[in-house]
Amino acid sequence: MKTKILDRYILGSHIGPYFFALSVITFVFVMDFIIRWIGKFIANGVKLPVVLEFFILSLGHMFALIIPMAVMPATLMAFGQLASENEVIAMRASGVSLYRMLRPVVAAALVMGIGMIFYNDLLLPESNHRLANLMIDIGRMKPTLEIRENIFNDAIDGYTILVREKNDRTGEVGGVQIYERKGAAPKTIIAEGGRMSYSEEDRVLRFELDDGEIHEMPDPGDIKTYRLTRFKHFTLNLQDTGRDLRRTDRTYRSDREMSSGMMRERASEYERTAAATRAQMHQLARDHVLSVFSRVAPEASGLAPAEASGAAPPALERPSAIPRASSESERILQMLTVKTYELDGVLDQISRYGVEIHKKYAIPMSCIIFILLGAPLAIRSGRRGMTMAIGFSIFFFLIYYVFLISGEKLADRRLAEPWISMWIANIILLAVSVALIRSTNREFGAIDWGRYLPLKRWRRAHP
Predict the structure, then answer these.
(1) Residue 225 belongs to some domain of the structure
(2) Residues 134 and 160 reside in one and the same domain
(3) Quick one: pLDDT band at residue 364, thresholds 50, 70, 90?
């Protein structure tokens, strides 16, 4: 009974600080969201229900970080309060070790971490997918604001637009390249300059271009159909580019829009592709080596009967064989180079999937790490309270974030294994927290391990 009362008391001391920390961190993330997106929403005329939908979907990936982040300041504030009111000393006098104090909050953090794993794997991918679709749909609204200098823009269906220079006040543009993908015959329009305007009533984006060319090939399979048209003035009207939000359902999913099962299945497909590419490279190299040997040393393949009869081997008489071999070697080298690039791309994608899979588990498990790290720091800091909680939290969040981002970059470049890159922050902080806990608990006095290990009790009873 006393044990349950102690567990409830320690857990209860964490509830208020946790929700306080959760509220503060959520407020910071929401303010960052508002600063980042409010200008775009106003410029595109996005209606309030769509803004609210966008905000709610954005909370999905916010909470994936906010919930674990709130654990450490809550632990620092709770244990700091217990230490400042001398309750830690009272527990110590009653024979309660730091390990015993940590037991209920570690159990709660484990339950929270498991719940976050399911959240990251089942709910978050769907939320990210819907958010990505909505971002693309909003980007298609009033495309004149989306067209930026030196950036390819494909917000308008069937067109890719590149503008080197743009004056938002006058609408003048320079270095315009428009790639029309509609129909069977793609078309490219290049112009030195012109003017871009938008008609609200007709929902038309109009380009009035000067001094340019139109390149088109009606039959892509026949180069004779290529056609070049030069113009002094040319007007291009792009229809259906209004402000109204048009919903689309994108089937493609990036790695952050997939569950771990989907990514494992996709990674298995890439691994089979990588194995097939390696086999092709091996076969190309093997056939080339055998071909070269058949030219340079025909006796190696049983093509020298004169040597078997004791006659002197004839001199090599095919001077043209070396140029042919050299030309073939260059061709094989080019093919192997292309295959190498293909293999690198496949392996990079496999590594990215591995990173995202391990991230779904590593970040939720940081809840336990932050508790193990925060409790001894709070007890050692004594009465410093809120200042201590904020300072330590920011410091260790920065360390964790730097390790996480650096590990992700290293794994994406295949300089480290995905599991190492995602778990290294947890491993290092766990080692630090274990050292702090042992050092702090040593101040409480020796632990009677016989209370926890039956073997110790048996040895004491049977010396």
Answers:
(1) yes
(2) no
(3) very high
> What is the average pLDDT score of the chain?
80
Position 266 in a domain: yes
Torsion of CA 260, 266, 272, 276, to 10 degrees: -140
Can you tell me the distance from the alpha carbon of 28 to that of 32, in angstroms, rounded to the nearest whole number? Answer: 6
Residue 400 and residue 433 share a domain: yes
Question: What is the arrangement of strands in the sheet containing 227-238, beginning at the earlier edge strand?
Answer: 159-166, 172-180, 187-199, 204-216, 227-238
pLDDT at 458: 41
For the ranges 38-42, 130-134, 355-359, 369-373, the lowest mean pLDDT is seen at 38-42
The Cα angle at residue 220 between residues 227 and 190, in degrees rounded to 5: 45
Tokens of 42: 């106003």
Give the range of the structural domain holding residue 330, as residue numbers without chain letter: 255-302+318-356
Checking phi first, is residue 17 left (phi over 0); if not, alpha (psi -120 to 50) or beta? Answer: alpha
* E runs forming strands in 43-186: 159-166, 172-180
User: Which range among 235-249, 382-396, 445-459 has the greatest average pLDDT?
Assistant: 382-396
Domain check: are 131 and 171 in the same one?
Answer: no
Pick from 138-147, 197-206, 331-340, 409-418: least confident: 138-147
Same domain, 386 and 335: no
Q: Which residues, at least 6 apart from 303, have a Cβ–Cβ distance to it below 8 Å?
A: 294
Residue-level pLDDT at 55: 93
Residue 183 lies in a domain: yes
Residues 6+ apart with CB under 8 A from 73: 17, 21, 374, 389, 390, 393
Q: Are 180 and 236 in contact (CB under 8 A)?
A: no
d(CA 74, CA 375): 10
**Out of 3-7, 180-184, 362-366, 392-396, least confident range:** 180-184
Rounded Cα gap, residues 102 and 96, in angstroms: 10
Neighbours of 90 (CB within 10 A): 11
Contact 397, 407 (CB under 8 A): no
> Could you read off the pLDDT of 291-308 as tens digits, one per residue?
767 766 555 544 444 444
Task: Tell me how crowded residue 92 is: count the other CB atoms within 10 A of its CB.
Answer: 18
pLDDT at 383: 57
pTM above 0.85, yes or no: no
The rounded distance, in Å, linking the Cα atoms of 85 and 6 is: 16
Structure tokens at 20: 């306080």
Structural domains counted in the chain? 3
Residue 392 counted as domain residue: yes
